[in-house]
Write a structure and sequence with these properties.
587 residues; alpha/beta; Rossmann fold; 3 domains; nine-stranded mixed β-sheet; 17 helices; 9 strands
Length: 587
């Protein structure tokens, strides 16, 4: 009979209970809790109205996410297993249950435009077998697109995802933001797949799919690729028609989720569980074998004690701040903080330079709406790229710290799926404060002021040579100076608007840099704390195991021959029991 990971942990807990090692028991209980509580998070992302919500409904066989022609998802919708259908609104630490039929009121753009309710996400619980296996689906908002401010929140969730489905319909080929998102997703997520939807609506969907595959190959990406029709899938679910279900394209996608996403997550859970159990058993058996050696040959016990004492001192040194892994972690986080901050500021400076060039080309008020959208989307894209790069570097640092902690054996790292949330949520909108206008009245007043000066000046000069105050020369001068005054005033107003626009731009970029930088620093602090606590706990466990080995060896020197013989039989039985547990875990 196959041993499940949880059963393996339970047997290991029972096997080490007699040794009174609460530190090792805590490690196994933590592994057990991780097995029970860990969910496999599947992020469903894509541009606006590409069929993400219909895809989620088709996968689950239930109308979980609202889907109408005039409705778009405005809040992330997290779908997980529950015995009875339930909808929960999550806002910070607050959780409020609402009737299931109220979901569109809070999760859709028509009911909650721009997320005016300020919800973090909406949780939906339904009883579905695939969710019962641990799958958690997240339908993300597509409003504004992947490169928009809203897209930054989706990008920040990437490190927490076990898999990502990029959804795009068959109406057109991949856009530049979609390809850029895929590049970032592949960099930080283990499983990424592309899904082309609405194949029933577009006869040329095969050509579009082929072109999309060519685009992916062109940028060096090879994600799994699926083409589906949610309409056919829904019809098949209602009628039970298997032929229509196969035609919908969903069976290969469901198989991918079960085998690739859920299957690989389970394999990872088994590997990490086996690693934890093996590490705990190794520490117990090393103590027993040291005692066995001392009991078998008391004469050589002192040499063994000296050897164990040296190892114990090395284990104690792992907790010192001067330990190599401690220095690697401290220096690495400091360097990474500086590099991430420099990268973010460099990206923001480039945006400012390009935006200011656009501002200086003319009157910014005429293009302010388009300019604002471009700045916000470009800043969001830069923040997302910076976050992905920081995540990659952080994981590289974690592996390096593990190598320096113990280069002779592989170390299992703690969960590094840190999410920074939405770094742009607290950023104020880009607004220009200048309200100075230059209408017909203003132009007329400035023209009269300049014209009067010209008329008076040249009229007085003309009177010196016998001409009247109002003559053709003074009138022409009045017209010219009046026009020049109007032009100068227009230039002054445009220049002031440009200065106001540049000031607003710099305030916005400073705000983005401040909040995004804070999120990055928080993420790195959490990383440093988690790695420090993880490896310090391992050092404590190793040190205690060696101390017990020393104590056992010291006792064996004072034991009688009969006591040693009895103890050797006990040790052999205990080692056999532990090796049996190890064999079960390995299997």
């Amino acid at each position: 009979m196959t041993t499940t990971p949880i059963e393996a942990v339970d047997r290991a807990l029972a096997a080490i209970a007699r040794y009174e090692r609460p530190d090792l028991e805590a490690r196994l209980r933590q592994a057990r809790a991780r097995l029970r509580d860990d969910r496999v998070r599947l992020l469903v992302v894509g541009e606006f109205k590409q069929g993400k919500s219909m895809l989620v409904n088709g996968l689950l066989g239930a109308p979980v996410c609202p889907v109408f022609d005039d409705i778009a998802t405005s809040v992330p919708t997290v779908v997980r297993y529950a015995e009875q259908p339930v909808v929960t609104l999550v806002r910070g630490d607050s959780r409020v249950e609402v009737p299931v039929d109220q979901l569109p009121v809070y999760a859709s753009e028509s009911g909650n435009p721009g997320n005016r309710e300020r919800l973090d996400h909406v949780e939906v619980g339904i009883p579905r077998p695939i969710l019962g296996e641990g799958l958690e689906l997240v339908d993300t908002p597509g409003v504004g697109g992947l490169g928009s401010v809203h897209g930054a929140a989706t990008m920040s969730a990437l490190p927490t995802a076990d898999a990502v489905l990029l959804v795009s319909d068959a109406s057109q080929e991949y856009t530049a933001p979609e390809l850029e998102f895929l590049r970032n997703a592949v960099a930080v997520c283990p499983n990424v797949a592309c899904v082309i939807t609405k194949t029933d609506l577009y006869p040329d969907w095969r050509f579009v799919a082929a072109q999309n595959k060519a685009h992916l190959e062109g940028v060096g990406l090879e994600p799994s690729f699926f083409t589906v029709s949610s309409t056919l899938r829904w019809h098949a679910l209602q009628t039970g028609d298997q032929d229509v279900n196969r035609e919908s394209g969903y069976p290969p996608l469901v198989t991918y989720i079960r085998k690739k996403v859920l299957g690989e997550a389970e394999a990872l859970a088994r590997r990490s569980t086996a690693h934890d159990v093996h590490a705990v058993i190794d520490q117990i058996t090393s103590s027993l074998r040291a005692e066995e050696s001392a009991q078998s040959d008391p004469a050589s016990a002192q040499a063994l004690i000296d050897q164990l004492s040296a190892a114990e001192q090395r284990a104690a040194g792992l907790k010192e701040r001067s330990a190599r892994w401690q220095q690697t972690l401290s220096d690495g986080v400091a360097d990474l903080n500086a590099d991430v901050d420099y990268d973010l500021r460099d990206r923001m400076r480039e945006i400012v330079r390009e935006a200011e060039e656009s501002i200086m080309d003319g009157d910014p008020t005429k293009i302010w709406d388009q300019f604002t959208t471009w700045v916000q989307d470009t800043a969001a894209s830069a923040v997302s790229a910076n976050s992905v790069w920081a995540t990659q570097r952080a994981r590289w640092l974690a592996r390096r710290v593990a190598e320096h902690f113990d280069s002779d054996r592989e170390q299992t790292l703690p969960s590094l799926q840190t999410s920074s949330g939405d770094p742009l949520r607290a950023v104020r909108a880009l607004e220009v404060r200048s309200d100075e206008k230059f209408g017909v009245g203003g132009r007329l007043l400035n023209g009269l002021r300049g014209g009067y000066s010209g008329l008076l000046m040249f009229g007085l000069l003309g009177s010196a040579i016998g001409l009247s105050l109002i003559n053709p020369i003074s009138i022409g001068a009045a017209v010219l100076l009046g026009g020049k005054t109007i032009g100068d005033e227009r230039k002054r107003i445009v220049q002031r608007r440009q200065n106001d626009a540049k000031a607003a731009l710099r305030r916005y970029i400073d705000d983005v840099t401040f909040h995004a930088g804070k999120e990055s620093r928080d993420m790195l602090r959490v990383l440093q704390r988690d790695l420090r606590d993880h490896f310090t706990a391992l050092a404590d466990q190793l040190k205690r195991s060696l101390q017990e080995s020393i104590q056992s060896a010291q006792k064996s020197v004072k034991a009688s021959s009969a006591d040693r013989s009895a103890r050797l039989k006990e040790i052999a039985a205990e080692l056999a029991a532990l090796e049996k547990v190890r064999a079960e875990v390995t299997a």
